[in-house]
Amino acid sequence: MTFLVIGAGPSGLAAVKAFRQSGLPVEAVDRQPDIGGQWLYGGEASAVYASTHLISSKGPTAYEDFPMPAAWPAYPHHAQALQYLRDYAAHFDLLPAIRCGLGVRLMTRAAPGWRAEFDDGTARDYRGVVIANGHLTEPAMPAIPGRFDGQVMHAKAYRTPDLFAGKRVLVVGMGNTGCDIVVDAVHHARSVLWSVRGGNHFVPKFLAGRPADEGGRRGLASRLPRRWRGRIHGAVLGFVVGRPEQFGLPRPAHGLYDRTPIVNSLVLQHLGQGDVAVRVPIREFDGAEVVFADGRRDAVDLVLFATGYRATFPFVAPGPLNEVDGVPHLHLNIFPPEDNGLYVAGLIEGAGIGWGGRALQAELIAAYLKASPAAVARFRRAVAETCGRPRAAERGESGFFVDYAAYRRDLVAAMADLR
Length: 419
Ligand SMILES: Cc1cc2nc3c(=O)[nH]c(=O)nc-3n(C[C@H](O)[C@H](O)[C@H](O)COP(=O)(O)OP(=O)(O)OC[C@H]3O[C@@H](n4cnc5c(N)ncnc54)[C@H](O)[C@@H]3O)c2cc1C
Ligand SMILES: NC(=O)c1ccc[n+]([C@@H]2O[C@H](COP(=O)([O-])OP(=O)(O)OC[C@H]3O[C@@H](n4cnc5c(N)ncnc54)[C@H](OP(=O)(O)O)[C@@H]3O)[C@@H](O)[C@H]2O)c1
Known about the structure:
five-stranded parallel β-sheet, FAD/NAD(P)-binding domain, binds NADP nicotinamide-adenine-dinucleotide phosphate, alpha/beta
């Protein structure tokens, strides 16, 4: 019986490749009209805006067996990212196994696996399903009391900065999206305010002329405990970049490698130039004005919420993915406690993962499906142990943050044990 992969973004493509290379029959579907996931600019699943360049450099981002062209810049544009994924799919002959323009609307159990019902009303039974549906599709929008007379939008709908022309803009949220959009807005808006809540660490794109994330994933530094790595690299950043508080931003309450940092060399410069004014979180809307938690008020034309995304699995009823507070609690972010033929790919957040990290997940799923009964039994004990424990606080608020150096080691060790 065939396996189904839901999604043909970087994780789904890697899953199709890993299954085919392991001799496991597989087909994939994607609701968008083409492969590429997030990187299909303008697609319904994509939150990529026109100015998006990778924040991870091309070496750490690329699949390990398919480097990006040497002539490309260190941080490629989103159009190059899509081209790269298309080249990857063509190189490994993945396209015949993928059907685009077709979504899975419902999955139900059909022994020994799952029945997938598609958007076009057809259905098919599968031995197992790799869920690679991405987790940056469903906007997380805070509920703000009051009425606002201006325009409100989420970053998911943001594409080009002409939208800001002549407007008093308030960007809410200090993730990588918020930072990129603040920089876009500075060049077009009449004025830019930035409402921030928790603090974060800022990493420049380049250090000593090299991409800042090169070399950090392997070598000696990657073998140090996370806290020590964070302290050493944090001290370097403090010297090169300075502290966020020096730019009027909140002091981060977490260590450098406890959350995905901000990778942006421009936004601090704009703060320092006075192009952007920082505000605390919004308390309420009041007609043409926004009222902040400290009582300050500003008249604003456009509020853009760059407040992140929620992971959702609308095609599976709750239960089989072992949701805790709405987020699957899985072994290695992949395997649910019940051996039910569902495997989640790409549900990871953290610096350094790239598409190579997503490919390692796919290879582990394939290795599991090919493993001997004794190796599977050992693996199931590890799954039961992880999922029997409460989710660790170090998984972050998203519930799926990983420290990639340690996570990669765990994936490689699990694979070695299965083979
Ligand atoms: C602006 C922006 C910049 C980013 N920059 C980086 C970066 O520099 N480096 C990095 O590593 N990551 C970056 N990311 C994260 C990005 O999500 C990953 O690079 C990568 O796209 C994740 O791959 P994925 O396949 O898991 O999910 P996605 O790329 O989101 O693909 C999921 C696919 O599943 C499909 N799908 C969903 N539900 C269904 C369904 N029911 N039926 C059929 N198909 C379905 C969707 O249509 C989509 O094509 C960025 C994200 C954004 C938004
Ligand atoms: N150029 C790139 O390559 C690029 C660009 C964008 C995004 N990405 C990636 O895409 C993923 C999603 O990033 P994201 O920035 O969209 O989401 P995110 O990382 O979840 O960040 C959301 C931000 O919104 C803040 N926030 C939430 N509610 C708020 C409120 N009511 N008031 C003020 N702030 C609020 C959060 O603050 P708290 O910290 O307090 O919760 C956080 O700073 C990440 O992996 C990111 O690295 C990459």
